[in-house]
C-alpha cells in the first residue's frame, strides 16, 4: 500500500483522490464505516444497520464499492447461498482516509472575521480588543491616521471612537464610505449625541461606558447585518441614530425633572411634555 499517505511525491496519492471522490457522494463513506466496524455483514444486516438508506440505493452503493475493489463478497453459506460484504485492504485504506478527511473538515474554522478597534484611550482600546480577540482577528489603532492604515475591504466591523487625535472619527468614517468598503461601523463616544448624527453614515452608536455583553452583542449583530441588503442596513442604521438621540433626550429630561422637583415640588404633579420636535425634523431632513 505505497499510496497510503494522503500526499505523495507527485501530489495527492491515488488513495487520497479516491477517498475524496467517495466523500463527494453521501453513502459510500457511510457503508465503508459500517463495514470497518465489523468482520463482514450480510445485505440484510447492512440494511438494518443503515435504515436511512433505501435497499435499492444500498445495493447500488455496494456495487460501486465492489467495482472499485473496496469490498468483496465472501460466501458464508451454500445452502441456502449467502454472502457477506467484507472490506478489502484497499477499502480499509479508503475508509481510514475518509474518516481523516471528515475529521479535518469538522475542525476547519469558519471564515475569520476582522475587526478594527480605534480608540485614543489605550486602556479602552486594550479592553475592547481583549473582549473580541478570542473570537475575531482584531487590529487596534489609536488615532485617525492609524485607523485608516488598518482599514481595507477585508475588514468586517470598525469600532470607531468619535474623538481621536489627527483625523477625527467623523473624518475616518467619511473616508471609509468614500472607499465604498462593505464595512459595518459602530461609533462609540463619551460625548452626548446631537442631531448631527443624521449626517453620519454609521450602523450603530454607543455611548461610553459600554458593558462587555452589549459591546460583544453589537459587534456580532453588525457581522450578521453585513449579509443584509442595503435598504435594510440603512433602515437599521437610522433606527440606531434615533435610538441614541432619544436615549440622550430621556436622560436630559430626567435631569431636568430632578432639578424641577428640587425647586418646585408642586410641579411633580404636572404631566411632562415629550420634546420630540428635534427628532422629527432631523429624521425627515437628513440621511445616515
Automatic annotation (TrEMBL):
<dbReference type="InterPro" id="IPR036390">
    <property type="entry name" value="WH_DNA-bd_sf"/>
</dbReference>
<keyword id="KW-0597">Phosphoprotein</keyword>
<dbReference type="InterPro" id="IPR002577">
    <property type="entry name" value="HTH_HxlR"/>
</dbReference>
<protein>
    <submittedName>
        <fullName>HoxA-like transcriptional regulator</fullName>
    </submittedName>
</protein>
<dbReference type="Pfam" id="PF01638">
    <property type="entry name" value="HxlR"/>
</dbReference>
<keyword id="KW-0804">Transcription</keyword>
<dbReference type="InterPro" id="IPR011006">
    <property type="entry name" value="CheY-like_superfamily"/>
</dbReference>
<dbReference type="InterPro" id="IPR036388">
    <property type="entry name" value="WH-like_DNA-bd_sf"/>
</dbReference>
<keyword id="KW-0805">Transcription regulation</keyword>
<feature type="domain" description="Response regulatory">
    <location>
        <begin position="114"/>
        <end position="223"/>
    </location>
</feature>
<feature type="domain" description="HTH hxlR-type">
    <location>
        <begin position="12"/>
        <end position="113"/>
    </location>
</feature>
<feature type="region of interest" description="Disordered">
    <location>
        <begin position="247"/>
        <end position="288"/>
    </location>
</feature>
<dbReference type="InterPro" id="IPR001789">
    <property type="entry name" value="Sig_transdc_resp-reg_receiver"/>
</dbReference>
<dbReference type="Pfam" id="PF00072">
    <property type="entry name" value="Response_reg"/>
</dbReference>
<feature type="compositionally biased region" description="Basic and acidic residues">
    <location>
        <begin position="266"/>
        <end position="280"/>
    </location>
</feature>
<keyword id="KW-0238">DNA-binding</keyword>
<dbReference type="GO" id="GO:0003677">
    <property type="term" value="F:DNA binding"/>
</dbReference>
<dbReference type="GO" id="GO:0000160">
    <property type="term" value="P:phosphorelay signal transduction system"/>
</dbReference>
<feature type="modified residue" description="4-aspartylphosphate">
    <location>
        <position position="161"/>
    </location>
</feature>
Amino acid at each position: 500500500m505505497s499510496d497510503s499517505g494522503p500526499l505523495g511525491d507527485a501530489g495527492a496519492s491515488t488513495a487520497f483522490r479516491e477517498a475524496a471522490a467517495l466523500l463527494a457522494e453521501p453513502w459510500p463513506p457511510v457503508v465503508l464505516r459500517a463495514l470497518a466496524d465489523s468482520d463482514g455483514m450480510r445485505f440484510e444486516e447492512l440494511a438494518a444497520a443503515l435504515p436511512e438508506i433505501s435497499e435499492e440505493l444500498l445495493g447500488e452503493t455496494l456495487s460501486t464499492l465492489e467495482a472499485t475493489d473496496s469490498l468483496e463478497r465472501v460466501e458464508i453459506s451454500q445452502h441456502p447461498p449467502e454472502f457477506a460484504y467484507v472490506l478489502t485492504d484497499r477499502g480499509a485504506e479508503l475508509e481510514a482516509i475518509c474518516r481523516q478527511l471528515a475529521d479535518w473538515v469538522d475542525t476547519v474554522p469558519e471564515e475569520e472575521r476582522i475587526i478594527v478597534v480605534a480608540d485614543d484611550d489605550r486602556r479602552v482600546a486594550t479592553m475592547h480588543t481583549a473582549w473580541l480577540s478570542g473570537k475575531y482577528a482584531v487590529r487596534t489603532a489609536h488615532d485617525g491616521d492609524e485607523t485608516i492604515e488598518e482599514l481595507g475591504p477585508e475588514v468586517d466591523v470598525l469600532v470607531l471612537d468619535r474623538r481621536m487625535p489627527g483625523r477625527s472619527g467623523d473624518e475616518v468614517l467619511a473616508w471609509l464610505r468614500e472607499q465604498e468598503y462593505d464595512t459595518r461601523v459602530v461609533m462609540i463616544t463619551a460625548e452626548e449625541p446631537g442631531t448631527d448624527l443624521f449626517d453620519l453614515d454609521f450602523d450603530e452608536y454607543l455611548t461610553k461606558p459600554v458593558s462587555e455583553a452589549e459591546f460583544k452583542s453589537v459587534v456580532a449583530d453588525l457581522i450578521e447585518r453585513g449579509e443584509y441588503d442595503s435598504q435594510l442596513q440603512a433602515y437599521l442604521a437610522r433606527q440606531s441614530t434615533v435610538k441614541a438621540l432619544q436615549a440622550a433626550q430621556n436622560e436630559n429630561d430626567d435631569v431636568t425633572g430632578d432639578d424641577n422637583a428640587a425647586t418646585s415640588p408642586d410641579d411633580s404633579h404636572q404631566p411632562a411634555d415629550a420634546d420630540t420636535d428635534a427628532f422629527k425634523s432631523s429624521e425627515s431632513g437628513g440621511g445616515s
